[in-house]
Amino acid sequence: MRLYIDSANLDQIERMNEYYPIAGVTTNPSILVKEKNHYIQALQDIRKIIGEEKELFIQVIADNASEIVKEAEYFQTMIPGKTIIKIPVTEEGIKAIKTLTAKNVPTLATTIYTPFQALIAAKAGAKYVAPYVNRIDDLSGDGIRVVSEIATLFTIHKMSTELLAASFKNVQQVYEACLSGAHTITVAPEIIEKLIDFPATARDVKVFQSQWKETYGNEAGNLLLK
Questions:
Q1: Helices in 24-157 by DSSP H: which ranges?
Q2: Which of 14, 19, 103, 105 has its CA 20 to 30 A from that of 189?
């Protein structure tokens, strides 16, 4: 399982990239607009933070296949490194995925709400598909079940496309998505921090430190080796 940061905030990305085993960053139009920077500059700044070997996902705005392809090629030119183009699973989007796959441009099929959308996108050549777990739940669906069914379909039909689960509101959803077959996940920074946050851990650390200081004072462990 690989972990991606779902954010365009440079401070958050820099911190997450420093502390956590991050595979890259996913962005979308809403995330970029929120930061109020020019989108190309923002994407280039993200690339500088994560380097060229980690993946950066950029979503197109165009809604017809030929324009989607042009936009994708523009992003590939402007943003160096491993750039993945996010394309909504509309009819025009599927056509664009087929065209870009033929051009060896990697894509992620986004805005996925059903297993069949994911399967069609995978057959079209998408490198990744991104089911929206929490948004599916908000529509009275079952986001985790959709993840599980996509994973099952991909196994049955021997698809090489990876399942990148997205849209989470809590750690439990992330956990269940991983158990249900998601190959990788993209998560907001505030949820990433909660993935290892557990009260008993902090409490145990304080107990260990207290016991040590009672016996050895502030002497650090490495001094014992001298």
A1: 29-35, 39-50, 65-78, 91-102, 115-124, 133-138, 143-156
A2: 105
Question: What does the alpha-carbon distance between residue 118 and residue 102 come to, in Å, rounded to a whole number?
Answer: 19
DSSP 8-state secondary structure symbol assigned to residue 195: T
Segments making up each domain of the chain, as ranges: 2-197
CATH topology classification for 2-197: TIM Barrel (3.20.20)
CA distance 108 to 27: 12
- The sign of the torsion formed by the CA atoms of 67, 71, 72, 73 equals positive
Q: What is the rounded end-to-end Cα distance, in angstroms, of the chain?
A: 41
Reported pTM: 0.93
Residues 6+ apart with CB under 8 A from 98: 124, 125
82 in helix, strand or coil?
coil
What are the residue numbers of the active site?
Answer: 86
In terms of Cα–Cα distance, which of 116, 50, 114 is closest to 84?
50
Buried b (16+ CB within 10 A) or exposed e, 81-109: ebbbbbbbbeebbbbbbbbbeeeebbbbb
